[in-house]
Amino acid sequence: MIIFVIVIQPVNVKFHVVNASLSEFNFITNTTTIVYNLSIEARVRNPNKKIGYYYHRIDAKAFYEKKQFAYIILSDRFYQGHKNTTMLRILFKGNSSIPLRGSKLEGFSRKFDKAKSNGAFNIYIRFGVRSRYKIGNYKSSYSKPKIHCGLRVPLLTNGTSTVFFCTTTCDVGSPLAMDDGEE
């Protein structure tokens, strides 16, 4: 392993969310339903000179206040070569029931209304990746790195917002790590 690191000098993939916005984000209290339209653009950069990546699956889960409200499978299989950048365009759109009652419902609703009046929501995105790396003719076994992104996403009103999105660097689990069995 030490020789591998010295010779290959692997570097983790870089993952940035470069743009995000909510054209709709509403919480309907009496049905505890979130109605959403969340658009995200993410840049995935392979900075390695000698390592390529096969992405067999990428999925994404969106959370607000630790409550998952959306899930999507992003892409078909693709290969990302050396020193290459791939753009992912993601659209979460729909509605989701959030199981809340009593004081938890009241607290959630208050936080939601406050964030809406401030013009931005703290949204957490977790990307699940199933990938393999390639060095020369060697292909590794599958790994399942997790990518975590904490975003402050502006809410658009009539197509504009007083809050601007700032590019966010996401925390990337090592693509060269072995599968830990977590789903």
Automatic annotation (TrEMBL):
Primary site of residence: membrane
Keyword Zinc-finger applies: no
Topology relative to the membrane: Single-pass membrane protein
Pfam family, one: LEA_2
Subcellular localization: Membrane
Gene Ontology terms describing biological process: defense response to other organism
Transmembrane segments: none
This protein's name: NDR1/HIN1-like protein
Provenance organism: Thalictrum thalictroides
